[in-house]
Write a structure and sequence with these properties.
By secondary structure, the protein is an all-alpha fold. It is 88% helix and 0% strand.
C-alpha cells in the first residue's frame, strides 16, 4: 500500500491551502489597517496645515 494515495494527498493539499489562505488573509488585513492608518494620518496633517 502506498503512502501517496488519493486520500492522503487530498488531506495534505487541504491543509496546505488552508495555511496559504490564512497567510493571504493576514496580509490583506495588514494592508487594510495600513490604509486606514495612512488615511487618518493624512487627515490629521491636512487639519494641522490649514
Amino acid at each position: 500500500m502506498s503512502r501517496n494515495n488519493e486520500r492522503n494527498i487530498k488531506k495534505h493539499n487541504d491543509k496546505l491551502h488552508k495555511a496559504q489562505d490564512k497567510v493571504k488573509q493576514a496580509e490583506m488585513l495588514r494592508k487594510e489597517k495600513l490604509k486606514q492608518i495612512v488615511k487618518k494620518f493624512n487627515e490629521n496633517n491636512a487639519t494641522e496645515n490649514n
